[in-house]
User: Fold these one by one.
Assistant:
Number 1:
Amino acid sequence: MPFFTFDHDYTQEELRILGRAHRRACQFLGRDPLLHPLAERVALTVMIFFERGERDFGRLAGMAVKRELYLLSLDTSDPHKLN
């Protein structure tokens, strides 16, 4: 697994994009973006794709959801599944 570093402070606009993408992804997954045990993993995924150059919050959310669903499909013992 590659190691990612986040080596800069985000601008207000970048934080807005990251926040919107995270909230949208969590909404699609039926999760509370602040309280769900796996919400932080979704946030990290959004940040990784953002660091790779994606800036559209809708695409960021979709990419995070797709990855999360893939990860959940690998672990059938996960008690947190979608909800």
Note: The chain is about 60% helix and 0% strand.
Number 2:
Amino acid sequence: MIPEIEKASTQDIKTFQEDKLKELLQYLNTHSPYYNRMFKEQNIDIRSIHALEDLTMIPTTTKDQLQQYNNDFLCVPKSKIIDYVTTSGTMGDPVTFALTDNDLNRLAYNEALSFACSGVTENDVLQLMTTIDRRFMAGLAYFLGARKLGAGIIRVGAGIPELQWDSILKFKPTYLIAVPSFLLKLIEYAKQHDIDLKSSGVKGAICIGEPLRNQDFSLNTLADKITSQWQIELYSTYASTEMNTAFNECEKQQGGHHHPELIIVEILDENDQPVLANDVGELTITTLGIEGMPLLRFKTGDMVQAHTEACSCGRNTMRLGPVVGRKKQMIKYKGTTLYPPAMDNILNDFNEVESYIIEISRNTIGTDEICIKIATNAPTDNLLSRIKDHFRAKLRVSPRIEIHDKKVIQKLQFPIMSRKPVMVIDKRQNES
């Protein structure tokens, strides 16, 4: 299931996207109060936008604008809206996205395409280990995608290893959709209850929410821990509510594939200009084929690197490398620039660390501070010393580390109304 456009030449893909961009600009000018107003205020003649390079003539859209003018992004009457989803906002209240029937069909197509990219077929059964309710787009997308692909799906929801294993043993899913660290909990439960991992029938996991790979695409510490105990294939997937689109790894596992019929991708620097080839920049997207709330040059906040060489799987599309970090979570710490994923990798090296949360704050002299709160079954000075030494060796810094009860960490990770675990608490905005 590789669409012809994904096997086309780079130039043909570019031409295809430029035609789609012209259609989108006309649609936004006609139906979007926000973009129509912006075009007028900025004196932008959309007829002058011909090539993808011309996108730099248009201002970017940020999450703050999306939140402040949320209803103005809606392009259809409310009678056409079938489903409402929300995503976290930068200024407190969540941002609402409204989907039409066509948007739901597009969401299903996107996820079916993404599953197929990772080797899932109509003969497979997927076990969904994330919520499908609470206005969460991802769970809905997975369900619709499996249905579109013709694969079976078991909607178990998040957490509860006992229930997950009951479903695995009863229904024999071939793929799991899960947060990678939860797979470790499943492995631990299996060990405690004499469940044979090899005979489980699971051959792969579509992993969400946490990185699996280093920047060179080798497995990171967390993924190594999983695969050393459970011989299954792990596939990274990257998506967000704003994109309505996923970037899944193929069997070559060399980055998440771009679907050019669904989204235009830019990697931008601090000045909203394209970065040089192979440089890291902020992923900025323009959605294609969306009726309800299409976005133009939306800055995702994620720092990534694009890989443009053809993949041996047969696709010629650009691939996204692992997310380096969230732009707003960049930390300037004692002369070193850090992102939380670099710290995740170090903490995952210690089996004694059961769970943790990273807190970023600003001290009285205006510099960043890092406090890592951990829960451990072996709270010793030796453990703290080893963790600090490992940080110094790998990152050349030594953050403050505190030991807390596991229940305290879990409460921080799962605040009220949370739909996925919070691993980073950034207090700097409240302190500025």
Note: The longest helix spans residues 10-31.
Number 3:
Amino acid sequence: MAYKIPESVLVVIYTRDLEVLMLKRADMHTWQSVTGSKDFLLEPWLETAKREVLEETHIDVDSPGCKLLDWGLENYYEIYPAYRHRYAPTVSHNLERVFGLELPRQVPVVLSAREHTQFKWRPYLEAADEVFSPSNAEAILHLKNFLHDDRHPRAQAPSKRP
């Protein structure tokens, strides 16, 4: 059995109107953004993010109007006990890199049935309240800091304390 690599991405997909795409997990029935682990240790973060978005939603981040941005945020957290069997026996924590994918508008979504059962678009504050993961909620609340749309004021990118 090949163990999962304890490095993953979280990709918040949103429109310029601050609507966030939410996916319902097939295993836990909770809402989340796109997430996924690296396929191999040296897989670049950006490639992991592109691959996971395509696998989970069939959205091609290289399509016109799409803007995938590495937000430069990382979360280090304890892996839930129910998922530890997927990792090597000595692994207890995961490093998560946060990305945002800005879309000009809502786009068609095709779910990976083994991972997700439903999707919905929600205003970003509602989405932050509905997601299961605290790091996902925090990332959604940061999205205004990374907008490319001049209709919304941009703030400085948030910084994480060591």
Note: DSSP finds three helices and seven strands in the chain.
